[in-house]
Design goal:
This protein has 302 residues and is of the alpha+beta class. It has ten helices and 13 strands. Helix 6 runs parallel beside helix 9.
């Protein structure tokens, strides 16, 4: 049986690129049992409602990762897409939810049936999660999709995946919050360099990302053409330590896969999506990813 984290991590790829629109505010200030808080957090996470999910994270963890950093690394859905994924999240079936409480800490274990967002039936309804297409939906069109989802769920034909998982929580000021344990996450450090006289400014937006094993995260680079002519270039990445990076560091989507062309003075944000493997050794230390941009005519052939 798959864990919820694996299913959500796979579904997270649907959010990139995402609509960078401010979402409605979540009122993550209510008190509740560890079981209720865990369910609320998981529903937000499944719906790609990352702004709401962050508000359930412990203060202890927030010292290591700000909301701005978290949202950059976990692009949220917004608008119609978010409204629809919230509907899907409401169709999660919770089973055997139980909490083991010891003092100010708790472990919540649960089994669930998650709507399979990768299934063709759901992909078709959601226009393959195309952000621009979903943003153009009218209220009537959105309601029609919701009604279809509810009918499929009622008839038992909505594709679902069996999963189980556990979450750790900590009690802070009488409220239960998720313990993400970012203090134990693996630092992934990003650097940048332009080569062969390329007249571009190139740098990482965030030099270090704290990555929990198995989490699919996004990092951003910024690039600017400093010359007075249009230039085309291509990037390659070097990962260190190489032997461990080859085994445990996966670059899933990357601007380096295709060449980039910038007009004079043009600036771009270039995203990449990566994941540290579930089975990475605990004593790994850190990973380092260096991107090098070359003029297209001087890009190394090997």
């Amino acid at each position: 049986m798959r864990t919820v984290a694996i299913v959500i991590s796979a579904a997270a790829l649907l959010a990139i690129p995402a609509l960078w629109v401010i979402q409605r505010q979540s009122t993550a200030t209510a008190t509740g049992t560890p079981e209720r808080i865990a369910e609320t957090y998981m529903k937000a996470l499944y719906a790609q409602d990352q702004r709401a999910a962050y508000r359930w994270i412990s203060e202890k963890d927030r010292k290591y990762k700000s909301e701005r950093e978290y949202l950059r690394e976990n692009p949220p859905f917004s608008g119609r897409a978010l409204e629809l994924t919230r509907e899907l999240a409401d169709m999660i079936e919770w089973n055997d939810v139980r909490a083991e409480i010891g003092g100010n800490e708790a472990t919540v274990r649960f089994k669930v049936k998650l709507p399979n967002s990768s299934a063709p039936e759901i992909q078709k309804l959601f226009f393959e999660f195309d952000a621009s297409r979903l943003a153009q939906l009218t209220e009537k069109e959105k309601v029609a999709i919701v009604e279809q989802l509810r009918l499929m769920n009622k008839q038992g034909v909505l594709p679902k995946i069996d999963a189980e998982d556990s979450l750790k929580l900590v009690k802070e000021q009488e409220n239960w919050r998720l313990l993400a344990d970012w203090a134990q996450a693996i630092p992934v450090k990003f650097t940048a360099e332009v080569k062969e006289g390329l007249a571009w400014e190139f740098r990482p937006v965030q030099e270090t990302v704290l990555a929990k094993p198995g989490a699919t995260l996004q990092a951003l680079y910024k690039v600017k053409n400093l010359s007075d002519r249009t230039l085309t270039a291509k990037a390659r990445h070097r990962d260190e330590p190489k032997d461990l990076a080859d085994k445990y560091l996966e670059v899933i989507q990357c601007f380096c896969f295709i060449q980039q062309t910038l007009a004079p003075g043009e600036e771009k944000e270039l995203p990449l999506v990566f994941r540290v493997g579930w089975d990475v050794p605990k004593d790994i230390g850190e990973f380092r990813i260096k991107y090098e941009f070359y003029p297209i005519e001087k890009f190394p052939k090997t």
